[in-house]
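call fold(seq) -> tokens
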Amino acid sequence: MNERIMPLDYYITISLSDDKLVAYLLISNADEQFTVRFDQLEDLLRANHVVHGVDTAQLALIAADPKPYYFQKVVVATGTKPLDGQNGYIRYVYDLENDSKKPLELEDGTVNYKEVISLNNVKKGQLIGQRFLATEGTPGRAVTGEVLYAKSGKEARFKIGKNVITDADQMAMYAAMDGMVVKTDRDKVNVFPIYEINGNIDYNIGNIDFIGTVVVRGNVLPGFKVRASGDIRVTGGVEAAELEAEGSIEISAGIVGQNKAHVKAGKSVKSSFIQDAVVEAGEDITVSQSIMHSTIRAGRAVNCKGTKGLIVGGTVQAGERVTARTIGNAMATTTAIEVGVAPVLRNEMIQLRGHLKQNMENLEKTDKALALLDQLAAAGQLGADKVAMRIKLNHTRKQAFEEQTAIKDRILEIEKSLEETERAKVEVISVIYGGAKIVIGRYTKFIKDQTSRMTFYLSDGDIAMSAYV
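ret:
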């Protein structure tokens, strides 16, 4: 059938997909004698407005032998798909979506179940998140040559909560204060200066290390640690736990330390009572009920003058003053009250004296060894190994003397400060029992008999007493 009676589009149908990205060719109404040229196929596509993405290789195959393509839709052109732009997004420095509490896995593979919470601590001016811009889409092209427009991505926006700021272009979010980064239920990002726990510090919460103030509306159970750059407030009690705050610590229900509790504040500590614990404060320690069998160190003052106001057992140290209603008890329990020097200096003095004793013992051993080597040298029996030992021992002896001199100088410096104790005093509002010991500066007074309403202070190189007013 070299001469066709009907036009070409009677035998071949061109159709497009709905999105105009694909053109199909369908051969029908053709017999065994049907032929078609390549250029005729191109003309037919152009007549049907197919001008982009034409598969010329496929057209050549059809022109060479159309019979295998009878009665089937063959793809003869493919358009270019439009590419939508990517949405903008925000990348946070912290994981603000993960609310799960998982125990901390240690390097050896074991798990610390006390470390089950991770706080997003942040300092003022620190980066919280960055915003990345959306991208524009890339247009496509239909097989008909039409431009297929792409969608641009949607811009992401910061949801600003409390105590956060952005730069002028709103491309970065920063903390406006020290605190904890938190995302609220409305996806607003906040920095809160206070971390509140509505319950106990236990295995459900874990140890806490927070850059602001921590409020515990419950108890701190044994073995747990709470650290805060601000203050710590506990509405319940503290058991055999560790608390450390750069600010102050307040414990409403008291401390039952079981000889394992350690509470340390850069400023002050307040508690209803302290039992079997170590408590340190840079300024004051105030206790309303009692201090029992504990080690207490305050940079300035210890006040225990509530209705009970009892100090019994242990050691209480203060830089300036200790005031209590009652010190000791009728059983003459040993109770030491030390004032007139910062506790850290007094304790340093104790350590220095221990070091000095050890230094002198080592020096004595070195001198004995050198004396023996000197005897061998005088007898001409000093071998090369003994000569090396002698040189080494002389070097050791020199170092020991230098260390001894430094220790003695530091002890003398602290002793001078121990004498500057004009403001130091111990005030007894009610009674002090025998068995108590008063230390003011470098002077000590042992209390043998029960005494009432008395103030102890330093006068003319001795500890004097006068009626408490």
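The mean pLDDT is 89.
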